[in-house]
Amino acid sequence: MDNRPIGVFDSGLGGLTAVKELEKVLPGESLVYFGDTGRVPYGTKGREVIRRYARQDMDFLLRHGVKAVLAACGTVSSAAADIGAGLPVPYFDVVAPTARAAVRATENRRIGVLGTSATIHSGSYVKAIGELDGSIEVFPEACPLFVPLVENGCISPEDELVRIVVGRYLSPMRGAGVDTVILGCTHYPLLSRAIEQVMGAKVTLINSGREAAHALAAALEETGGLCAPGTKRRAEFYVTDAPENFSTVAELFLGHSVEGTRVDMTFD
Ligand code: DGL
Fold first, then answer.
1. What is the dihedral of CA 66, 68, 79, 164, to 10 degrees?
2. Is there a catalytic annotation at residue 73?
């Protein structure tokens, strides 16, 4: 048994899709969430900058005494997995469990991958799928405008702007006839309804935050790393920009309100 909190981080609010799932599957576990809302998006930045930010984010969680770190961010997972692997606590990210779920789901062996520019250019999902099944065709698409839409709460499929942007990005994989689409960035599940509208209800959407949360839960269960029954749960949310904005949009992700605490980190 281990009563320390689980640490989860993202460049912003997207990682809350993993938190939402952790609240469901591990309701007794304490959590520390770090959202780097002051520097989001990461996905349009260069690899070295992403890696520097990722290291700082992981250090922040370690200073809060977490027992495991979940990079609930496709971009960090794609650019900084080796940094996570070197942590003194177990490290989890979104790429491997999400690729496994997509390979299980596809019937026509055609998978679309939506992600940030950094994630798509890293080739992380294409590689992970190829290692699982080299006969699957993968259709990656970078969607740099999705994160700003979501961070601004712009997610309704009725919104003209959402429809135009989603339609533009999805058009190639729609033409390719994929039957499974990886939402390779943890922000994207909020655009699920708009994505479904373009791709059709028969296409399976794989939520990377959810898959990562399940992988982490299974690993903690297997290794006896869960908290003792009856332990008082705590959940702390830290952000690097105004907490008021965080609280408003966080509710869209979690379905309930949370208070964010702004932290002043020295990012040098
Ligand atoms: N949620 C992050 C991801 O999964 C968003 C990336 C960004 O900040 O651009 O990739």
1. -90
2. yes
Find the helix packing angle between 16-25 and 243-254, rounded to 10°.
50
Task: Write the pLDDT tens digit of every residue in 125-171.
Answer: 999 999 999 999 999 999 999 999 998 889 999 999 999 999 999 99
Plot region of 142 (φ>0 → left; ψ -120 to 50 → alpha; else → beta): beta
In testing the pocket of ligand 1, which one of 40, 70, 146 has its CB within 8 Å of the most ligand atoms? 40
Ligand 1 atom nearest the C-alpha of 115 is: 10
Q: Dihedral, CA atoms, 129, 132, 135, 138, nearest 10 degrees? A: -10
- Residue pair 250/258 in contact by the 8 Å Cβ criterion: yes
Q: From ligand 1's centre to the CA of 11, what distance in Å?
A: 6
Cα 42 to ligand 1 centre (Å): 6
Which tokens is 117 given? 């520019």
Q: Which residues line ligand 1 (CB under 6 A)?
A: 10-12, 14, 40-43, 73-75, 116, 119, 147, 185-187
Q: Are strands 31-35 and 6-10 parallel, antiparallel or unpaired?
A: parallel
What does pTM read for this prediction?
0.95
Radius of gyration of the chain (CA): 17
Atom 6 of ligand 1, nearest CA residue: 43
